[in-house]
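User: Sequence recovery, please. Input:
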């Protein structure tokens, strides 16, 4: 798999307060090297999974719970009267996928 050097960032995952800012290079298809940037944020998102420099998934979990609550609110606003069986189907189809996405990483 070829990586696009302009879209790559380096994030050091460590418990140390001061992190080394080493220069990392990637070779472009043309043949010349380019330097990859260190991420300025403490949190990066990759494949819709939010990871911070301490490998804590608190930010990711908070985002997913917030999105699930938004979906529940959308269901409640859209239906005046909703039978429990139908709510369960809507929950499993709309809300649960947000909560279960990439949960094998942080469980």
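Assistant: Recovered sequence (107 residues):
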């Amino acid at each position: 798999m070829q990586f696009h050097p302009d879209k790559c960032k380096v994030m050091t995952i460590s418990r140390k307060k001061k992190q080394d800012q080493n220069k990392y290079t990637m070779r472009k298809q043309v043949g010349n090297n380019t330097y990859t940037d260190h991420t300025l944020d403490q949190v990066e998102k990759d494949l819709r999974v939010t990871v911070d420099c301490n490998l804590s998934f608190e930010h990711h979990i908070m985002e997913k719970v917030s999105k699930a609550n938004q979906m529940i609110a959308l269901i409640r606003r859209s239906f005046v009267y909703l039978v429990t069986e139908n709510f369960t189907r809507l929950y499993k189809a709309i809300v649960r996928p947000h909560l279960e996405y990439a949960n094998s990483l942080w469980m």
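Residues 42-107 form one domain.
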